[in-house]
Amino acid sequence: MHQSPMSSDDVIAFVSARSRWSPLRQESAQFWRSGAIVVREDGVWALDRTHEVVRSARKAVRNRVSEIRRWAATRPDTVAMEAHRQRIERERTAHARELAAMRRVLVHAFPATRPRAVALVDVGAREATTFLGDEIRPALQRLSEYDIIGAVSVRVLLRELGVDPGERRLAELGPPQKTLQLNRRGRTLRITTALLVQGSCGISRPFGNERTMREYLRSGAHTKLRRRLEADAKSLYALYQYGRLHGCVRLRWGFLDEMLPAPWVHRNESTLHHLLKEAHERRLALEVVVGSAPGWADPWARARRAVVATDAWHSPSLLADEQGYEIPRADVQLARLLDGPRENR
Q1: Alpha carbons 24 and 15: distance in angstroms, whole number
Q2: Domain count, the chain
Q3: DSSP three-state, residue 289
Q4: Do 252 and 292 fall within a single domain?
Q5: Can you point out the beta strands (E) in 99-165?
Q6: Which pTM does this prediction carry?
Q7: Checking DSSP bridges between strand 104-110 and strand 117-122, what pairing results, if any?
């Protein structure tokens, strides 16, 4: 601390300029008991340089400075470290662009063994198409047009369909773990894809009843079967997109509300975390869809404006709406940058 008496505002400004983690506040003086700092009647803070606490602190600082100087030569060059970090970030960004450009398709079939109905969802075009019986084989030839194929139990399903994925990437949409222990007595929750769709996307009935769908097949109710199969595929699409946005999926059951890693998301893909960081750096607002999965026909119909705020550690990890209320990140279904600077708040 400066040796001459200073006003409390000057002291706080002096310390804050040198450490953004300082807890020093105006009210801090109420809790001082050592007597090393005296608060005068005019509000000025004066340091008692003869106090034992002050002498001890100064000795500790000198020792710390001496230690830093002694070991300075062995520490990495901060300039070189920053250059290395920037290079890694450039490589990640370039790879993220390559991944984003890949054509992706999701496959959903019924029944799971010896399928007689298949739905394909073109992720980029946001198009879902169903195929029954003899339509399936020609439709599966379209898979050669894609770089990434996603499905629940994707390898098993492709074998059932007689599809060789070759060098294509496979995205497993099944649960990243099968069970979760709920208590010390060993009670466990079986994690299903339906449970993850419900928790992540807010779709209460993500998949059709198997018995009902078998009845559609038996009775030849093909229109109903197509409609239900397409709805199931769209539920998988919502889960897939939620995972891409967050890098994880949400498990909600009773008192549980946890995030599980999405195995189909590459670590270099851009997620909401990267989007928040970019928006903060460029001082841009975001457009977000919050709550349940967006509608299929117009996914941005419920979009609203949001701004990025920093948390207690100065990390751009918070979202707020135009009224200043925080938007829980886990509730975000879609997000994109808005052109033009955000409003200062």
Answers
A1: 8
A2: 3
A3: strand
A4: no
A5: 104-110, 117-122, 127-132, 148-151
A6: 0.78
A7: antiparallel
